[in-house]
Records
---
Amino acid sequence: MQTTPAPGLTPDYPELLHTAREAARETAGQGRVADYIPALATADPDAFGMALATVDGEVYGVGDWEQPFSIQSVSKLFSLALVLAHGGDRIWRGVGREPSGNPFNSLVQLENEHGIPRNPFINAGALVVTDRLQSMTGDAAGAVRDFLRQESGDPLLDTDPVVAASEAGHGHRNAALAHFIAAHGNLENPVETVLDRYYAHCSIAASCRDLALAGRFLARHGLRADGSRLMTGSEAKRINAVLLTCGAYDAAGEFAFRVGLPGKSGVGGGIVAILPGRAALCAWGPALDAVGNSVAAVAALDAFTTASGWSVF
Ligand code: DON
C-alpha cells in the first residue's frame, strides 16, 4: 500500500521508516556478516538502523540509526564526489563509468582494459579515485573524514584503526589490483600510500544518521549542509547516474529493480540511497547477500520506495 500524502502535506516519514524496519525484520537469519576482513566478523548480524535526512534539514531515524558501523565502500561515493569537486572531469581519463557485472574485488577486466577500471565503485576504480584525491589533497582519507564530519556535524567521526589494520593485513587482492594499475601507469602515488589511504577511508566508522546527512548534497543537486556548493547540479546528477548503474556492484540491476534509487553499498552492511530533490537515506544491517549487499538494508529500501511510491522511475 502506498502512503504518499496529498501534495502540500508533509510525508509521514516515521511511518515509512517503520514500514521499512518491519521489512528488514522479516529477513532475520538471512545473509552472512563479511569475514574476509576479520575485524568486520564481530558485527551483530541482527543490528538494523535506518535514517532519512531531508533537503530542508529534517532528520528521522529508526532502530540502531545512531550506532557507528564500518562504512567500507560507501566511502567511495564521497571520495568520488571530492575528486570531481577538486579536479572535475579529469578523473574519467583514469576510470570508466560502465557497470562491471563482476564482483567488486575482481581482477579480470583490468588485464584486457589496460589498467583502466570499469567504474569508480569497484575496488580497482576506487583505488584510482583515492590516488587522485591523494594527489589533490595530500590526505585522501582525511579529506573524506573531514567531509563526513562537516556534513554530519560529528567532530569525533574517524577511521577505526583496528578495522584499517585488519584490511591491510588481509589485502592481497587490493594490493594485486593496485600493483596492476600501477604497472599500466595509472597511479600517481606509490602503491603503499594509495592502499593505506584507501583502507583508512573504507574503515571510517559512521552511523546511518551521519551518512544520510553526508549524502544529502546529492539530493540537493550539489549543495552542502552549510549552503555552499560542492559541485554543479549536473555533476551531482552524473554521480547519481553512476550510483544507479554501478553502486551495488554486479547486483546494480537487481538494486534498481527492487529499490529504484541511486545507491552505494558497503560490506559493513550500510547502503546510502538518494531521493533526488527530496532526501538522502541510509539503511544498515551487517548480514550480506552473496554479492556483498546488506540483505536487511535492501529489503528496507525496497519497502520504503514501494510504500512511498518514490523512486527515480
Ligand atoms: O577493499 C575492500 O574489499 C573493502 N574495503 C571494501 C569493499 C566493499 O565494501 C564492497 N562492498 N560491497
Note: The chain has twelve helices and ten strands.
---
Amino acid sequence: MAADTPVTLLILGAGGDLTHRLLLPGIGSLLKVEPSRKVQIVGADRTDLTAAQWKKRVEESFATVPVPARPARSALAKTRYQQTDLLNPEQLSALLAGCSGPLVIYFALPPSVSMKVCKLLENVDLPDDTRLALEKPFGGDEKSARAFNAQLHKLVLEDHIFRVDHFLGRSTVFNLIGLRFANRILQPVWNAEHIERVEIIYDEDLALEGRAGYYDGAGALRDMLQSHLLQVLGVFAMESIADLSAQEVQDQKAQVLRATHLWGGSAKKSSKRARYTAGQIGRRKIPAYTREKGVDPSRETETLAQVQVEVRNNRWAGVPFTLRSGKALGAPRKQVIAYFRPVPHLPGGFDNTAAPDKLIIDLTPGAVSFVLTMNAEGSPMDLEQKTLRAELAPGWMLPYGEVLREVLDGDNLLSVRSDAAESCWRIMDPVLKAWKAGRVPMETYPAGSAGPAGWLPADSVVE
Ligand code: NDP
C-alpha cells in the first residue's frame, strides 16, 4: 500500500504503558522520517480521558522523539479518543462503526483481554482492509497460540495479521540479513563445519522498574527467550533468501524454527533459571526480586533464563545455540556471538595457542566486531586477539516506528507468521512444564552480579 494512502490506526488500550512509552513515540519517529504520511490515530480505552487530555498525551509522546512541528500539528488535528469498555459488545460496535478503512486495529491490551475482544469482533462489521496488530505474548503455550490463531483467522486473512515482535524492527537484527547474504567471506563459513557454538544474549542491568504486574506473570523465558530471542535465532540461522519479500523471509524463518529443538531433547539438561537477590547496580540499591512491590514469591518467577537449543538441519546440526536473558545483571550485554572452530592445524613454534575467532553482533547500540588472532605486536612468536569493529549508525526510526510502518503499509516483513508463533511455544513448552514441576532448580544471583557461576563457558564474556 502506498505511504500516502490515509490509514486509521485504532489503538485499543490507549491509556496503557505500551501506548504511551512505545507506540506513540514509534508513530512519532515514523512521522519524523516520513512527514507526509497520512495516519489518523484513534485511541480507545476504558480510562476516562477528555479530548484535550488525550491530545496532550500524544503531544508529550511526540515531544520525546521529537516530531517536527508540521507533521505533529497535522496528526494532532486528526487524532481523537473514545472512552470504551472493549468487552461491552455495544460499545465495541459503536467504536468500530466510527472507523473507516484501511484500518489497523492495534491491540495494546493485556493478552487475556485481546483474546476476548477478538471473539467479540466476530459479530462486528469490520471495514474493508482491516489489519490486526497483536503484541506478545501471543498465547500462553502452543495449544492456546493455535486457538488464538484460529480465532484471528475467523476475522481476517493471515496476511492481514501482524504479530508484533519489535526486535525484528531493530535495525541491528535486520542488518543480520545484509551481513549474512551480502558478504562472500561469510557465506562458506556460516554453518556447523566452521561455527562451533552461538550465543544470543540479552542481559539487562534494569531490575523490575515497577512492572511487576506484567513481569511477575511472565518471567524471563516468556518475556524474552520464547519471543524475541527465538526470532533473532530465526534470522541468524535461516537459509538464503531470493529477495526481501515478506513471504521469502517468513518461509525461511519458519523453516528454522520448525527445525529447532531443545539441546539433547531434555528440558532438564538444556535449561537453567534463576532469580536475583538483593544487591547493588552502580549506585542503585536493588531489593531481592521476591521483595519487589507487586511480586508474588509463590509464583516462582525467574528473572534470568538460559536455554540451549539445536537447529536440526543440514547446516546447523550439532551446534549449540544458547539463548539467555535476565534482569538486574551487573554487565548489560545484548549480543549475538558466533564462535568459530579452531584451525585444523596451527603451525608449530608459536609460544601460545589461538583462541577461537568470533563474530560479535551488538544488538544495542549496533556494532559488528570480528575478533581475529594474529601475531602479537613486537613479539611475533606470540599470538594475540585483535578486534575489528564497525559501529552501526542508529536506526532512522525507533524499532516501533519500523514495525508500525510495515503494519500501516500492509507489509508482513517484520511480523511473526502463525506457524512461527506456534513453533516458538512448541520449543519452549517442555521447559515451562519442567520448571513448573520443579525439575530444574531455581538458582539465585545477587543483583549487580554476572549471574550464577558456570552457566556460560568461561571464554564467553566479552569486554
Ligand atoms: P497496560 O496494563 O499498561 O495497558 C493496558 C490498557 O488496556 C490499560 O489502560 C487498561 O485499562 C486497558 N484495558 C484493559 N481492559 C480493558 C477493557 N475491557 N476495555 C478498555 N480498556 C481496557 O499494559 P501494557 O500497555 O504494558 O501492555 C499492553 C500489551 O503490550 C500487553 O500484551 C503486553 O504484553 C504488551 N507489551 C508491553 C510492553 C511494555 O513495555 N509495556 C512491551 C512489549 C509488549 P486499566 O488500566 O483500567 O486496566
Note: The mean pLDDT is 94.
---
Amino acid sequence: MAPSELRYDGQTVVVTGAGGGLGREYAIFFGSRGANVVVNDLGSSFKGEGAGSAAADKVVNEIRSAGGKAVANYDSVENGEAIIKTAIDNFGRVDVLINNAGILRDVSFKNMKQADWDLIYKVHVKGAYKCARAAWPYFRKQKYGRLISTASAAGLFGSFGQTNYSAAKLALVGFTETLAKEGLKYNILCNVIAPIAASRMTETVMPPDVLEKLKPEWIVPLVAVLTHKSSTETGSIYEAGGGHMAKLRWERSKGALFKPDDSFTPGAIAAKWKDVVDFSNPDHPDGPADALGLLEAAANLSPSPK
Ligand code: NAD
C-alpha cells in the first residue's frame, strides 16, 4: 500500500521529542492521517539544556489547526510513565510509540566529562526504555503495538567525537532486536531507524547545500510504513535519508572451525586467519542460537593431527 493511502484512524501515536526536527514531521503526519497524537517535548536545547512548553504547544496547535487531534506533554523521556499517562488520560489507549527525543554532547573521548556520558545515556537509552516500559503493558493487553526507536549511523559505524552518542544509539539496536522477539506473539512490532536529516542537530555539522537534500519530512514514509497495522516487519534496522532507504543486517564471515582441544592454539588461528575474515560466503544470523550449529560442528571435528 502506498504511504499516501495509509491511515491511523482511532489509533493513538506517541512521538517523543516532537517539538521540532524529525519528531515534528512524524507528529504532523500522524495528525493528518486520523491518529490521536501525543506531542511530547521537553523543550531543551540540542545539548539538553533548559526546558519549556512552547515547542510542543506549537506543534499541537499546527495539528489542531489542520483539523487533527493532538495533546502536548512536556516531560523528559526519562519520565516515560507520565508521557504514556497523557495518552491514556486523553485518548484511552496507546498504539504506536516513536522513541525519537534526542540530544548531542559531542566531544572527543579524551575531553569527555562524566556528565556528557551520563546525560546522553539518560535521554537516549533510559528515555527509550522508560517510554517503552510504560507502553508495553497496553500493547500486550490489546495484542497490538508498533514501536520505533531511533539509532544513528554514528552508533552503527562509529563517528569521531561521539563515543557517548554512538554507544547509546547502538544500545537501542539491541534493545529493539530483543523487544521484537518478546513482542512478536502479541503483534507488537519493533524496529529501529538510523535517519539522516536536516535539523538543528545537523545544521552545525553539514553545509547548507547538503542539508537542502536531507529534508526531515523524507524520513516520514518509512516510519509510516513500519508503524502501520499492515506491517509485518519487526526486529529490523533501516537507514533513511534524502531519497535513500535501505535495510541493514548483521553479517558473519565464513569463519573457520577448530577442534576445541589442545591443538586450538594462536598458531592454529593464524593459519586459518584468511577464513576467519572471509566475507565471500557469509551468513546473516538473527539470533544467538544461530551460532550453536557452528559450535557443534567444531566439537565434532575429527581430532587434529598431532
Ligand atoms: P532535534 O534536536 O531537532 O529534535 C529532538 C527533539 O527532542 C527536540 O525537540 C528536543 O527538545 C527533544 N528532546 C531532547 N531531550 C528530550 C527529553 N529528555 N525529553 C523529551 N524531549 C527531548 O533533532 P532531530 O535531528 O530531529 O533528532 C531526532 C532523533 O533522530 C534523535 O534521537 C537523534 O539522535 C536522531 N538522529 C538524527 C539524525 C539527523 O541527521 N538529524 C541522525 C541520526 C539520528
Note: The radius of gyration is 22 Å.
---
Amino acid sequence: MSAAGRRPPGPPPPPRPNRDPMLTLAVIKPDAVQARRAGKILAHLEAAGFVVRAARLVHLSRGQAEAFYEVHRERPFFGPLVSFMTSGPAWVLVLERDDAVAALREVIGATDPAEAAPGTIRRVYGESKERNAIHASDSPATAAREVAFFFTPAELEQLGAAR
Ligand code: CMP
C-alpha cells in the first residue's frame, strides 16, 4: 500500500454523519441513571449512529424542571413529572446525526414503554410512562431551545458543536 493511501498516525477520526448532520437533545432520566442503565443507553445511542457533542450530569432544581417542561404545565401529569425529574441526577446529551430529531424519536420509541416498538430504548429500559428512561426533543425548534437550555453557545463552540 502506498504512503498516500494510509491514514496518518494517531487515533481514527470520530465517525461523522455525512448527510445534513444536525443536533438534538436527549436526557437520560433519573430512573435510568439510578438503575445504572445510562451506559447501556449511551451505547445504544452510539450504535444508532449518534455522536455525543456535549454532555453533563445534572440534578435539576424544581425551577429548572418546571421551565424545561413548561409546555406541559397545564397537563395533569406535570406535578409528578417535575417531582420525578428532580428526584436524582440525569444525563443531558447533545447528539449529532443526520436527521437527528426524527431519528432519535424513532430510536427511543413511544412515550409509554408498553407501547414502544421492540428494541427501542424505552421498550428495553423504561418502566412506565413517567419512568421511561429517556427524553428527546420533539422538533428541530424544540431541539434548539432544549440544547440552549443546558449549554451556552460558548460551551458548544468550545466542544465543536456550535451551529
Ligand atoms: P418526555 O419525553 O420527557 O416528555 C414529557 C414527559 O411526561 C414524557 O416523556 C413522560 O415521561 C411524562 N408523562 C407522564 N405522564 C404522561 C402522559 N399521560 N402523557 C404524556 N407524557 C406523560
Note: The radius of gyration is 17 Å.
